[in-house]
Amino acid sequence: MTSPENTREAALSKLRQQIKEQRARLDPRVLELAAQAAALSQKPGGGKESMVPYDRVAAAEAVRLFLQSHPDADGFEKELLTLLKQETH
Q1: How far is it, in rounded angstroms, from Cα 84 to Cα 30?
Q2: 61 FRET partner, CA 20 to 30 A, in 38, 49, 67, 80?
Q3: Positive or negative torsion for Cα 39, 44, 49, 54
Q4: What does the alpha-carbon distance between residue 74 and residue 47 come to, in Å, rounded to a whole number?
Q5: 83 lies in a domain?
Q6: Is residue 37 part of a domain?
Q7: Do the domain assignments include residue 54?
């Protein structure tokens, strides 16, 4: 029979591994590419040749995960939103 402590430790170990895998997937360059894609998609008259294809859901998830692990998530998020607003106005 498995003790509750062994089950807990196994669950924590699995969770730590998942966190490690998520952090390994995060790449700050992805944010730069997402910002470029957003900027290109907002430019009027830009042809398809200037568009950068990306998956919005995956980009949003990447930003969410990055902000979760960023030491100054609030400051970074505010800066990112400011930059995105400047691109759209």
Answers
A1: 15
A2: 49
A3: positive
A4: 35
A5: yes
A6: yes
A7: yes
Structure token pair of residue 50:
């200037």
**Burial of 31 by CB count in 10 Å (0-12 exposed, 13-18 middle, 19+ buried)?**
middle
Paired tokens of 35? 């910002």
Number of H helices, E strands in the chain: 4, 0
The helix or strand, by DSSP H or E, that contains position 15, with its residue range, turns out to be helix 4-25
Q: How far is 40 from 74, CA to CA, in rounded Å?
A: 26
Angle CA 7–13–16, to nearest 5: 140
Reported pTM:
0.32
Task: Supply the range of the domain harboring residue 71.
Answer: 28-88
